Amino acid sequence: MARLPRSGIRRVFDEASKYPDCIRLEVGEPSFPTPEHVKAAAREAMSSNFTRYTPNAGILDLREAIVEKVARRNDITATTDDVVVTNGGVEAVFTTLSAMVNPGDEVLISDPSWPNYLQMTVLLGVQAVYYPLRLEHDLVPTVEDIESRITPRTKVLLLNSPGNPTGSSIPAQRLREILDMARRHDLWVVSDEVYDEIYFDEPPVSTQALDTDGRTVTVFSFSKTYAMTGWRVGYLVGPRDIVSHILRIQEPVTSCVNSVAQKAAVAALTGDQTCVAEMRAAYASRAGLVTGILDRHGIPYARPSGAFYTMVDVTRSGMSDVDFVSRMISEKRVSVVPGSAFGPGSGAFVRVSLASHEDDLNAGVTRLAEALDSWGS
């Protein structure tokens, strides 16, 4: 616990909160309300007293809906025994890693990556080893960069597509190459796909759909797809031999997910999906707005293909990413996240969240671009 790093996103959140007029572009929180049919299902569950413990793996009708969804959307063949419903995607990643690693093992994590991955490795007593994501590759990993970090202690490769903080998606051919490498080195693969329904071109490919020998566990969530961050429902799908161990960990960690929230999740998957398409279209529009501003100012960035983030290169400011962010908050009243919050090699960037309203994005990113133009001159 003494070595547990604090999230750099939260540090920015606290600093920006001192200024009521600050435009908040730091937190990945959907700006949409939870769909009405999802909330109605929760009210019905409460009214009918569906408020008791559920099976550790989740209620059967939710797992059945998940099996249907991953077959239809992710091209993953599974049964209800291959599914565990979890308290958000974060618990799914943590319990999966817990089932795969021993103290002293190494886990491969991209730089940049979601800070919680590093926090999990610290809690589990394993070593996080970063592999770089490069702007010239649109922040998509390459086999060469991953393989060069593998040692005899490497146990797990963690992938995130579409990615936070990158906004990038890993193409199918690259995933095949990465899986071939994982087979050569006998690695587990944890594929974090909580943004699988937020994409701007073609739907992203699921790693597990290409896995031929059962080494991949895939993590999904309702938080981003259905604007259900506070409901805390995620799920994982994987080979039964490892899922059985993950399920054993679920009991002492959380027992089960909130029963009412599980009924709401059933409605989310089985109800009208128009809300998902509308939110996806809104995020795509916001991405186009932001990239248009950056293009007009000639600012390098990673072009987002999914999720709702982009990484913007701020090296022309002549400042460190941390100093640039602090100055943006205090002088421009715009909060973004320093790239170094996502990995030691990502200090050239700041992350902009596309989850905010278009008016805030237009004003905030315009101020950011103007700051780079003036501070870097």
Structure characterization notes:
Helix 11 (274-296) packs parallel to helix 13. With 377 residues, the chain is an alpha/beta fold. Helix 7 (172-184) links the parallel strand 5 and strand 6. Strands 2-8-7-6-5-3-4 form a seven-stranded mixed beta sheet, sandwiched between helices. Strands 9-12-11 form a three-stranded antiparallel beta sheet. A two-stranded parallel ribbon has the order 1-10. The protein is built from 13 helices and twelve strands. The chain has helices at residues 8-16, 36-47, 60-74, 88-100, 115-124, 143-147, 172-184, 207-210, 240-253, 259-270, 274-296, 321-332, 358-375; strands at residues 23-24, 83-86, 106-111, 127-132, 154-160, 188-192, 216-221, 234-237, 309-313, 334-335, 337-338, 349-353. The protein folds into two domains: 8-28 and 274-375, Aspartate Aminotransferase, domain 1 (Alpha-Beta Complex); 36-270, 3-Layer(aba) Sandwich (Aspartate Aminotransferase, domain 2).
